[in-house]
Amino acid sequence: MSSPIEIINSTNYIISGEISYMTVFCSSHYFFVKPNTNWESEKRGICPIVQVSAMIRTPRGVFTAKPFVSIGTAYSSFEVIQTRENVFCVTRSRNKTNKKSVILESSDHFF
Predict the structure, then answer these.
(1) Which pTM does this prediction carry?
(2) pLDDT tens, 25-34?
(3) Has domain 4-92 been given CATH number 2.60.40.2890?
């Protein structure tokens, strides 16, 4: 059982795009995401993803992000990021878990 697909828009612009699958038996998903928000699909079944593409609408025009391309992945969380002015790319999403640092406490201050 696979999880829903998540597209994270980490830009300050509206994005839209397409998720393409390896097989013709799985129809493409299309998404539209407001700035700094997420989009989530319904579950996709066993369909491997081969490409996630995105278009970014900025005040300077519409730009095509460098797509995420795979031979077929089950990975389900992707992020659109801005790498330079008017340059964007689709990547696997960053790990958003917050790791807490370990603090060792000791009542004996002499080591």
Answers:
(1) 0.80
(2) 888 889 999 9
(3) yes
